Amino acid sequence: MASGDGGQVTDQDAAARQAAEVAVELSEADQPPDRGRLTRALNGVARSAGRVGRGTGITKRDTDAARLGTAAKRGAQAARRGAGTAGHGASLAGNWLAAQVVAMGPRLRIRDQATLRAQFPGRSDDEIAALLIQRAAVAAAAVGAATGAWAALPVLPAFPAEIAAETLAVVGIEIKLVAELHEVYGVPATGSATERAGAYIAAGAIAGAVLNRGETRRLGRDIHEDLRRRLSRG
User: Fold this and answer.
1) Contact 42, 147 (CB under 8 A)
2) Phi/psi zone of residue 90: left (φ > 0), alpha (ψ -120 to 50 degrees), beta?
3) Within 10 Å of residue 61's Cβ, how many Cβ atoms?
4) Which of 86, 94, 183, 206 is 20 to 30 A off residue 115, Cα-Cα?
């Protein structure tokens, strides 16, 4: 998991890279993560997001007016809606978050079918899929629990870096889940790493995800059912 010190990383994709590390480790863990270590890692993502986010021109006034939300799920929804409904500040934040999601996608370690079957010996494809969905739901819930105090703030900081950190971590978990469900059933996306990540983001409507365990689980089940229908028709 990302160390969380954030001091040596200054490039534009730093938050995306750190969030990808968090998402991969959480998704593949056999046991719930250590709460303190996870919080430190997410703090590192938030610091990177804050440093770069200041360059978007978002001000406290913009953020308060746009009301990205006092909860992380509102931040994710505002990021999806953009300027049309959330105002100038939300549009800037949404554009930045969207760019970070695109940058994060190719950095996520995706296990292929052979690797997943080797890690879950004796399990059917459906059983492996169920385990992946369960682990992703637990991982997303862990992120939400670690950042719950941020979501309770009555007024967000000038750039909602903490919300950006939670959004990126959970979206990373969900992109990885969607990708690995496709791998389990032998229908992975094709193209470059960036193109494959883009296909998985589109397939799962990732940008509109609401950040809680129920939605992550629902996303996984929807993708799972869709894959099974496609294969049964094929």
Assistant:
1) yes
2) alpha
3) 11
4) 206
